[in-house]
Amino acid sequence: MVESAVLDAGRRDGQARPAWREVYVLGGLRGLSFAGDVMAETAILLFLVKHGAAAYAVMALLLAAAVPPALLAPVAGAVADRLDSRLVITVVAALQALCCFAMVLWPSPVTLIALSVLLSAGLAFTHPVLAGLPRSMVGAENVPRASSISQTCAMAGMIAAPALAGVLTSRFGIRIPLVIDGASFALVVAGGFVIKTRLHGSGQGRAAEHSAAEDAEKRQESTGEAETSAQESGPVYRVRSDRFLRSVLTMAGTVIACVSMANVFLVFYVTRTFGASGTTFGIIVSCEMVGLIIGGIAVGRIKRIRHEDILIGSLLCLAVGVLGTGLSPGVWWIVPFYLIGGIGNGAMATELHIVLNLRVPDSHRGRGFAALGAISNTAPAVGYLIAVLLLVALAPRYAFICAGVAALLCVVAFSRPLLRRGEQAEAATEQAPTTDAA
User: Fold this and answer.
1) pLDDT digit string (tens) for 19-46?
2) Where are the alpha helices (H) located in 223-364, listed in sequence order?
């Protein structure tokens, strides 16, 4: 469907042969970075709760991770589409490593939350670059497989991180997890020099842009028809003008806002409602990470189901996971529901990366992933604010139930418009002319 519409554009991504080795290197770097980030965030969260922090402090930490990428999305997208990808990755990761080591030196609640803002601001710049590299490495034909590998490796890095953070924080305090996070960013800096594929830098990126410009000039010279010239100089692509992509991001963002409330509820639900330990909390979160990998791998192997159908199914799993958690009679009953939610989360994340890599042209890929980053961070921020209000009025169990029901209603409400947009996009693809000028 969407893949066939952009297949020709992917043939000029600058790679004569797919660079699968670099895809795995990229996935490994993302896995290390995600593992360090999740470990640090879990450790800081447990640190705040241990020192008597209220829901407002938890919300402040979660907002510190969510708000900067949303606010910086326009700038980050423009940077990803114009600057050398290696420069962006290495410089930003080096600054993030310094932030982690600053946290080690001054581990107070105020400094931890403040420096978390800087860490997430760096993520706003590196995410569009790292997410846009797979297509340039392997071409549009191999995007589903490459995106699945990259996302699965990133999720694999998150599996053991919460449980390990719970154990390390309980025994050694918060400093060890923060040192590990800083070391992961240092490895990302080194990996940035290992990856040869570069966007908008010397070599492949500029060669691809130059080749595309030459092709456009030749097409204009080969025909003198005014209609063709008008077609070539028509309105440029805009992410916000893509109706199908806008429907995808709107539906995903709305459901994410409902589901993300669970991030605020869970620590209080596990430790106060059921009286479980921080280690149990970490194990439950790790079960969700296992589901992330299962969902990411499954999406990479699905070939005959439409993208919008996969997305709806993944969001439905997320809603069921949250609702089931609220209905759980015991703490260990949460595990299967968090596994289901993790499968939906992994499938959703991978599917969104596939759709953007296939749908958005090269010149706007950074801005496309920046828009995804903005949605992925603004929606949780809204959810966190609502979650705090719910916790004031309701017990954690009933707050979970409310969030799950809201997520299910959003899936039902947005499914029909998304399917209609998908049918229109497929019809437009089938009716598109197959000539070079088209």
Assistant:
1) 788 888 888 888 777 777 777 777 888 7
2) 226-232, 243-259, 261-268, 278-301, 307-326, 334-359
Tokens in use for 328?
């759980």
d(CA 316, CA 138) in angstroms, rounded, equals 31
256 burial (CB, 10 Å; 0-12 / 13-18 / 19+) is buried
Residue 2 lies in a domain: no
pLDDT > 50? residue 356: yes
Judge whether 208 lies within some domain: no
User: What is the count of structural domains for the chain?
Assistant: 1
- CATH code (residue 76): 1.20.1250.20
Query: What letter represents residue 238's amino acid?
Result: R
- Whole-number Å distance between alpha carbons of 193 and 89: 9
The residue range of the domain holding 248 is: 16-201+239-426
Q: What global pTM score does this model have?
A: 0.64
Burial class (CB in 10 A: 0-12, 13-18, 19+), 227: exposed
Residue 72 pLDDT grade (very low, low, confident, very high; cuts 50, 70, 90): confident
Q: What is the pLDDT of residue 317?
A: 93
- Among residues 244, 238, 219, 241, the alpha carbon closest in space to that of 229 is found at 219
Between residues 276 and 321, the one the model is more confident about = 321
Residue 162 structure tokens: 């919460």
